[in-house]
Every structure is written in structure tokens, then in C-alpha cells.
Description:
5-stranded mixed β-sheet; alpha+beta; CATH 1.10.630.10; about 10% strand
Amino acid sequence: xxxxxxxxxxxxxxxxxxxxxxxxxxxxxxxxxxxxxxxxxxxxxxxxxxxxxxxxxxxxxxxxxxxxxxxxxxxxxxxxxxxxxxxxxxxxxxxxxxxxxxxxxxxxxxxxxxxxxxxxxxxxxxxxxxxxxxxxxxxxxxxxxxxxxxxxxxxxxxxxxxxxxxxxxxxxxxxxxxxxxxxxxxxxxxxxxxxxxxxxxxxxxxxxxxxxxxxxxxxxxxxxxxxxxxxxxxxxxxxxxxxxxxxxxxxxxxxxxxxxxxxxxxxxxxxxxxxxxxxxxxxxxxxxxxxxxxxxxxxxxxxxxxxxxxxxxxxxxxxxxxxxxxxxxxxxxxxxxxxxxxxxxxxxxxxxxxxxxxxxxxxxxxxxxxxxxxxxxxxxxxxxxxxxxxxxxxxxxxx
Length: 399
Ligand code: HEM
């Protein structure tokens, strides 16, 4: 089959359960594969790494002159902005979240994350069948980010509802009418933004030790986000960290139930869990592809990619490239030097990675001892439509 239809075949829903043979085909046809729509697709480790670090590659969809895979908002969040604007917003957003200004904030959440996980597990007691997504993985990251931000507990369900609407708008099948879902997502974003700005205002001069209080009370006015930026940043943290973390936990359970020897090993050697999470980020990553756009004509491995063209970097393919990874299709929790693309690389490297790692370790650590006789009810499980953020919609298991 033609390699210039590879992206269409990878994103086709029938490939969702197992896109990895297509990624192998892509690396074989590559490194740079031109697509029928004029865009480019790249799946080899070395080229992806070089392009993620290349300042001539823009993350901003407004620099694109060719058609894209998805509709974009006119003003993107900093995930899709370039430096210097990206750097400014990322630096300000990092201040209440991580080092050097708030080095202990995420780590201090370990106890609370263990507690939330414990409550979710407790609610599953006496159940013979559960859905790992709906009953466990889905509620966890929203609850955690609400607590970090300082959202009162009685309002957490509002965030579940808003996130549902936003996630649903990214999960559109071919030919489906997107109007209603886009409208609902837009409304959810607006309501979430208004709520967060209001809450932040209540914390102005009356800080309560959470991220929203820190954002609004930043003493250096030059470093303070405007209220609009605050709302956008907070929404980005809710959305960027939600489905990704859900998928990592769900993919973890799926992988371990498919490989009972590895499940058994992790049960006997729980100290391997952090490495197992890294290996999951390589072997079954939540983020499969990211788009970049060259700001000038660039040469990649002998092919000139014109300025303004959509370039899709298949991160999940790069993380299965046999050049840097020995036996890449094997799930090996003791794999040394695991420099995967699970959290991206370069200036947009995932900002929430330390939190995601703690959540995944807590979730899998709590579930693994309970998976002794568990089995998958359906394999492969039903997947979400989204090919870029790939993960099961449901994962029913029999305990
Ligand atoms: C398993 C969970 C997660 C995965 C797999 C993941 C993956 C990624 C990836 C691949 C990128 C790079 C995107 C690019 O280069 O275009 C990214 C960026 C980002 N992630 Fe995550 N993420 C996860 C969890 C989180 C969490 C929990 C948060 C927030 C609390 C978060 C916030 C962000 C933000 C703000 C960016 C943009 C960084 C920038 O543009 O400078 N992520 N993530």
C-alpha cells in the first residue's frame, strides 16, 4: 500500500486497537513521509528528537498554510505557542507548581493522592466487574488537580461535568456532526474560566495555600498572570493532565492483564513500579502524535519540507524505534536508559510529568494487588475515537 496514505490509515478508527504495525511501516518508509494532503509524517526517533528541539519548528497552528487534522481555536494556550510568548507563560505557570519556586508542592500531594486512590478502591469492594476507566482512572486526575488548585470539595463535580464536555468534543468519529459538542465544550470552557477567576478573586489577599492563591497573589506584578491568562492556564492544566493520565493508568492495567508474568513480577517486586510507569509511557503512551510547522523551508534527512506545512511527529512510533530501543515491542519494566517521548521533549516537555508519575504509581500500586485473578472482559477494549490522545473508552474487567 502507498506510504502517502499512512497518516489516514493510522488515524482510521480500525487502527486504534493496534497502530504499532503501521508505525513500523512508517519507519521503514521514512524517515520523512509525504502525505496525500501535502503534509508530512515522521516516525523515527532521531528525526523526531531533532525536530522537537529545532527552534525553526513552530507549535503554533496559526503558522500553518496547509489544511490540518483538526479545527483549532484562534488563540491557542501556551502548549501551542512559540517562544518568547510560550516561555513567559510557561515560566509563570510553573511558579506555583514546581521548582525552583514551589519545589515541594507536587511531592506534598503524595499522601492525598494515596488517600483519593484508597477511597476509589474502597468503593469497588464487593464488585465482581468494574470499568477501570469510569470507576477508577477517570475520577482520579480531576480530583487531584482540583485539590492542588484549591477548588472546594463540594464543587469538584462541576469540574467532572466541564471536563466531560471538553473531552467529548475531541472524540469525534468520521462524519459525525461536531456542532453541538463544540458548543457544549466552548460553554464548559467559559463556565470553568469564570468559576476559576471568581475563586481566585476570593483568594486575593486571603491566600489559602493552593495554586490559585499563589497565582493571584504573586508579589512581583511583572510576574503576575492577567485574569484571562490565569483562566487559560488553569484550564490548560485541567485538560492537558486529564485524559493523558486516565489513559496511562488504563493502558497500564490493560498491558499487565495481557502479560500476567509481568503483573506477577510487579506484585512480587513493587519497587519496580516507577520503572514500569516509564516503560508504559514508552510502550503504550497516551500521546501518540504532535504537530509542528516549519517557520522556514527545512531539510530533514535529505527532504526539504516547505515553510508552513503540517508535520506530524509520531511520538509513539519514535518510542518503538529499534535503533535506540532494544526489542522495542517488548514491555520490559527493567529497561535501562529509557529516553521515551511519553512526555514529549524540548521546550514543550510536559510540565505535569512529576504529578502524572505520582498519580500513575499510586493508582497502579493500589490496583495491582487486587488484580490477582482479574481478567479482561473484552480484548481489545472499545477505544476512544481520538488517534492523537489514544486510549480505551472503557476497560471492563472481571475481578
Ligand atoms: C500521563 C500523563 C501525561 C502525559 C502522557 C503528558 C504528555 C505530554 C506531552 C507529550 C506534552 C508535549 C506536547 C508537545 O510537545 O506538543 C505535554 C505538554 C504539557 N503537559 Fe502533559 N502529559 C501528562 C500529564 C500532565 C499533567 C498532569 C499536567 C498538568 C498538571 C500536564 C500539563 C502539560 C502542559 C501545561 C504542557 C505544555 C507544556 C509546554 O507547552 O511548555 N500534563 N504533556
